[in-house]
Amino acid sequence: MRFLVLVKATKDSEAGVLPDPKLVTEMGKFNEELVKAGVMLAAEGLYPSSKGVRVRFSGGKPTVIDGPFAETKELVAGFWLWQVRSREEAIEWLKRAPFGNEEVEIRPIFEMEDFCGQFPPEEREQYRDRVLKPAEELLRAQVAATTKR
Question: What is the pTM of this model?
Answer without folding.
Answer: 0.77
